[in-house]
Amino acid sequence: MKLAFIGTGYVGLVTGACMAELGHEVVCADIDQKKINGLKRGKMPIYELGLEELVSKNVKKNKLSFTTNISKAIKDAEVIFNAVGTPEDKKTGKANLRYVYAVAETFGKNLNGYKILVNKSTVPVGTADQCRAIIEKAAGPTAEFDVVSNPEFLREGAAIKDFLNPDRVVVGVESEKAKEKMERIYRPLARAGRPVMFTNVRSAELIKYASNSFLATKISFINEIANFCEKVGANVKDVARGMGADTRIGSRFLYAGIGYGGSCFPKDVQALIETGKEQGFAFQIIEAADRVNDQQKIIPFEILKKEWKKNFKGKQVAVWGLSFKPRTDDVREAPAISIITSLLKAGAKVAAYDPIAMESFHEAHKELKVEYRHTAEEVLDGADVLLVLTEWDEFRTADLVTIQKMMKGSLIIDGRNIFEREEAEEAGFRYFGIGV
Ligand code: NAD
Predict the structure, then answer these.
(1) Fewer CB near the terminus (10 Å): N or C of the chain?
(2) Average pLDDT of the chain?
(3) Å from CA of 196 to ligand 1 middle
């Protein structure tokens, strides 16, 4: 089928390329000329495992193309996926739907026969109804179209694998015609045994927020248990292992640390809380998960405040990891941002290393005077403390004895619990983990 993706970011580019891989004819459109020019030359705007190969393969097969001509992309396609950003409005905590509505309007203005607008972006319950109203206003009351909700569940770092082998595909529809088209689009996945679930539009919209908020809550839950472990001499790694072995609980998302970040959990949790408020509904558990996460992020700074008696002047901090999780260059809402900001404000010097995300971190946070170094070893030179903020594999295999020799001080704050206390202490470190 002829598909258009409007918004060629993490989601639009990955899902667009994967849809081409499934055999559809896909055009990925974006208002960002630089991004599209780069893609036309084969330059990926993001780091994602296997993406460059997938894009280049499908471009060669004429299954995938790129454009800034949004109107034409809409006119030429049968089904249009809305994959623009829905960032948090920092003033209200709500999802900013400006871009989503702009696409709905352009869709309405370019409607030339029955088409479907599929909201793939994460949007609050009721957004499809708003889109429908916008389209009707732009296209007139006789216009024939459907608005479908098809939230995306891919994880950055494993995005292609996740899209092609999803646990489930959720599609919210209000008409048989739209359902049939969506069934055709996802038929290759259904044939491969992947569940494609149809619901009404509002349920599909809510499934995405409920899923992300549940996962965020699971992380905050184990973080709260970790904080209690510190008080009572238990080890959260063992507690989580014991809990996770129960198949009703499961071991995933039970890793204690300095909190969740990224472009989804923080904003989606906030947006659900705000949608609740609009309906006169208070999400008590989810609000608590959000609060716990805020406290979790400041733990490394609080430890240092105590250690250094609030005197950060002349202190050198080595930071390992800037992205919000490994295998991505995405730094949106990464705990590293608030931690480094606090450290610099307090007067410390920060040298940082990340295998992939240094450029994107610098680009997004030019105001932070961080010294970026080329290797994990280089940041250790003259360091009073090592902070591990992202659990990249190359950090896990580091030799603590060697690290200790390269540093000035002997303090390590392992915000992701990648080392063992015993091993760190044997290497001469004073070790702080999270609940271990
Ligand atoms: P992104 O910021 O990487 O990409 C959004 C793109 O949309 C940008 O390239 C921007 O230039 C483009 N854009 C904005 N307005 C436009 C317009 N009017 N016309 C055409 N293009 C326009 O965002 P993302 O991370 O891909 O997220 C997109 C949506 O998917 C969000 O709602 C997000 O919550 C959701 N989501 C993201 C992930 C993830 O892991 N990143 C996973 C699941 C769902």
Answers:
(1) N
(2) 97
(3) 23
